[in-house]
Amino acid sequence: MGQYYYPVSLDKKEYLLSHDYDNGLKLMEHSYIGNNFMNAIERLLIPGGAWYKTKILWAGDYADHEPGYAKTKDGYDVNIYSIIYKEGTKIKPSDERVDVKYHYLTNHTKKVVIDLNKIKEDGDGWKIHPLSLLTCEGNGRGGGDFHGEDSKIGSWARNVISLEESVLPGYELCDDEDGQFVEEGYSNPVFVQKDGNSALKPDLILGNK
User: Fold this and answer.
1) How confident is the model at residue 185 (pLDDT cuts 50, 70, 90)?
2) Angle at 174 between CA 131 and CA 130, to 5 degrees
3) Domain edges within the chain
4) I need a surface site. Which of 85, 180, 181, 190 has the fewest CB within 10 A?
């Protein structure tokens, strides 16, 4: 079964729906630099953006039960994906791409920075956006997730994130490899958004749960 995700600002109690941007809900149906859905997230994270310096989570619907919440009456887990759907606010910000000067993905909790300009293309000419993979919870439990073992996945979940135009004093610029993700192969074709246009990407079929 496929796993669906909501990008969430835990501080704002807001989330985005990738279908609002003609993207799939599965992680690797929208996690690409230049994708219009990721453009919308980036716009929220720049100085003055609604999610600037807030705790960010890519919440999967197969993620672990959230501490402090009772299970459903049928005994099912409750996680941020289900909680934010019921208690949060869905927003739909502009997907206009941010100024190119904002290319330093900054983790204020860990005081580390990834330069998005250093992300390399995969064999199909795509650049996997590190933000969604670094902040996700639940990866590896459903179709459409990132394929491959990488200890960095989820390591920024619930951390305070922003997109800056420079490396802030006292912050460490990560090695290029720290923001680079390479999948271990693909299967069926899927259409996702690249630079605002639909493009064919070898991955799991869009919309199959």
Assistant:
1) low
2) 15
3) 5-202
4) 85
pTM of the predicted model as reported, rounded to 2 decimal places: 0.88
- With CA atoms as reference, report the closest residue to 24 among 192, 151, 197: 192
- Which residues touch 195 (CB under 8 Å, ≥6 apart)? 34, 35, 36
Write out pLDDT tens, residues 125-137: 889 999 999 999 9
- Whether residue 186 contacts residue 171, with contact meaning beta carbons closer than 8 Å, is answered with no
Q: Tell me how far apart the alpha carbons of residues 61 and 84 are, in angstroms, rounded to a whole number.
A: 11
> What digits encode the pLDDT tens for the residues 62-118?
999 999 999 999 999 999 999 999 999 999 999 999 999 999 999 999 999 999 999
132 Cβ contact list (under 8 Å, min separation 6): 5, 7, 27, 30, 31, 38, 58
By DSSP bridging, strand 14-15 and strand 159-164 are: unpaired
What DSSP letter does each residue of 55-81 carry, written as one string?
EEEEEETTSPPPTTSPPPTTS----HH
